[in-house]
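Hi,

Apologies if this is the wrong queue. I'm a grad student, and the batch job for ribose-phosphate diphosphokinase from Caldiarchaeum subterraneum produced an output file that my downstream script rejects. I'm not sure whether the problem is my script or the file. Here is the sequence I used:
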Amino acid sequence: MKVVKGPSSAQLAEKVARYLNVEAVDVFARVFPDGESYVRLSGDVRGEDVVVVQGTHPPQDVNFVKLLLLVDAVTRMGAKSVKTVIPYMAYARQDRVFLEGEPVSIQAMLKALKAVGADEAITVNIHSPWTADQSAVKLTNIDASGLLASYIMQAGVEKPLIVSPGKKGSEMAAAVASVIETDYLAVKTMRSPETGEVEVKVEEIEEGRQVVVVDDIISTGTTMAKTIQQLKNYRPSKIIVAAVHGLFIGSAAEKISSAGADLIFTTDTVPNPFGYASVAGLIASHLS
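Support response: The file is valid. Your script probably expects a header line. Output copied below for reference.
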C-alpha cells in the first residue's frame, strides 16, 4: 500500500501513512497561467493498493478537480486499486433537490469519482449518512463523534450539557453525550431555502451549567454564534464549541468567540488553527 499526499491534505496524509507504516508519495502541483490545475505523482505506484488523500474543502472546485486528476494519474500508472480519502466532502449539503431545477450535487461528485477510476470514497461524518445508499462509488463514512467526546473530556468539563445547533446534528450530539454519559439538547432552527437565513430558539436550561455545542460543520459560524448567544441567557459557566469539520469562512472564528465561546476545537479534516483532534488514526484503522 502507498498513500498519495494530495495538496489539500498533505499533513493528514503523512499522519495516515505513519500510522500504517507505508510510503507517502509526494505530489507536485501547480496552476497554469490560465488557472488550470496540474498534478504529477513524485513516486511509482504501479501494482500498488493506493490511497489518495485529498480533501475538498475551500476552494472546493479546485480541490475536487485535483482529486479527479490524481485518481486518473494513479489509475493510468497501473495501480492495483485506488481508494480515495476525502476528509471533508464538499457538496454534501446539496443531497437532494430542494427547489425545482437544482442538481443533487453530491451524487454528481461521486459519479465523477467512479468515472476516473476510484474503487472507494472514504470520508468523515458526511452531512447526510444515507448518501452512501445512492452513491455510484462505494462510500464509507467514518464517525468522529467518539474522537470529539474524548477531547471534550480532556478539556476538564464535568457532566456538560451537549447541545446540537439544529435537528440535523442531534444524532452526533446524542452519540457524544452517550460516550461522556451526560444529557443533550437539540436547538430548534429554521433556515430559509431561498435566503439561507437561520432562526434559532433554545429551550430553557438549568443556569450555570457547562455547555458543549457540537456540530458536524462550522462554516460561516452564524448558526453557532446565534446558538451561543441564546445559551448565554442561562448564564452557563463555560461554553465549548466542538465540530468535526472547521471551515471557518471569513470571520467565523471571531464571530463564535465574540458570541461567548470559551474554547473552540475541531478535528483536522480541514487544516485550521483549531484542528487539535486528528482523524488519522480512525482513517488508518479503516484502511488496515
